[in-house]
Amino acid sequence: MNMEFEKKLALPIEVKESYALSWEMEQNIGAKRRQIEDIFEGKSDKLLLIIGPCSADNEESVIDYISRLCPLQEKVQDKILIVPRIYTNKPRTNGGGYKGMLHQPDPTGKSDLFKGLIATRHMHMRAVSETGFACADEMLYPENYQYLDDLLAYVAVGARSVEDQQHRLTASGIDVPVGMKNPTSGDYSVMMNAIYAAQSGHTFIYRGWEVHSKGNPHTHAILRGYTNKHGQSQPNYHYEDLERLCDTYDGMDLVNPAVIIDTNHANSNKNPFEQPRIINEVLNSARHDKRVKAIVKGFMVESYIEDGCQKVGGGVYGQSITDPCLGWEKTEKLILDIADYI
Fold it and tell me: Has residue 288 been placed in a domain?
């Protein structure tokens, strides 16, 4: 085998015992999860806003950013439920570049997965204990989910992972809402088949065990745009796209039909300043059509303290080292504008 086995990592239960949640944290996370589930089940008409940095590269600036969301959540609590993004794994198109805090707790240092596992859990715990928010993360590696499964309120499966069998089966055993992104090709059927699989029960191998899942009724779609055969970004948040998704849901035996609109990536051609305009268009579509309004549960926004992005080691506090993000002043205005609109 052309691999070098460096060290055996601690089991999830060992990490959780060393970094255990308090009773208060457990209660808070449970309450946040129920609020999110109520949105997907139609019991609450609040809008879900999954918002934060493209990748959580620095604990201090990420917690600083999330802390700034606290007074905003108080202002908009009757209309919007904010779920901060703490994305600790970064999928890479060609495998190169910064892969997230899990790989490199210090973005300028070498890879250290054990330190990365500790760093990611520690950051999520700080978010809960210091701000009261339970957060979202992307499930890039299904076998690592158990290191954070007691902390997360929302999980996303990315465009390059959505067709993978292990991601689908693991999602079927997760007890928080899971969003399935459309693949980079834009093929709805891939995303919808992933939702169907995750809403069903399965028997499969997970971390060396034979496990049985019951299905996740809160698995749903995320539209993030796609790339055509010429490599050009194409949006899929327009009214016609949402109508098509409604029709697709109508033709399938799925519960809690829902979609989150990812306002960056191919939908904005990675221009973060387009995100407010995209949200405004989708909200207009929802006003125009009852079916669209019923299915659109919220938005995913890439936002940080400073506008744009920088290279690793650039030294700008609170600026993304991966995809460009919307800065804080524009983010604050966006959230208040959404609340005024709805």
Answer: yes
Tokens representing residue 62 in the block: 């990420």
CATH number of the domain that residue 192 is part of: 3.20.20.70
| pLDDT exceeds 80 at position 272 | yes
Q: Tell me which H or E stretch contains 178.
A: strand 178-181
Domain that holds residue 216: 135-301
* 52 within a domain of the structure (yes/no): no
pLDDT per residue as tens digits for the range 236-257: 999 999 999 999 999 999 999 9
Domain membership of residue 46 (yes or no) is no
Q: How many CA atoms lie within 13 A of 218 on its CB side?
A: 22
What mean pLDDT do residues 53-77 have?
97
Structural contact between residues 213 and 172, judged by C-beta atoms closer than 8 angstroms: yes
Distance CA 291, CA 108 (A): 48
Count up the domains in the chain and report the number.
1
How far apart, in whole angstroms, are the C-alpha atoms of residue 118 and residue 240?
44
User: Other C-beta atoms within 10 Å of 231: how many?
Assistant: 6
Specify if 292 maps to a domain.
Answer: yes
Does position 194 have pLDDT exceeding 70, yes or no?
Answer: yes
293-342, pLDDT tens digit by residue? 999 999 999 999 999 999 999 999 999 999 999 999 999 999 999 999 99
Q: Structure pTM?
A: 0.96
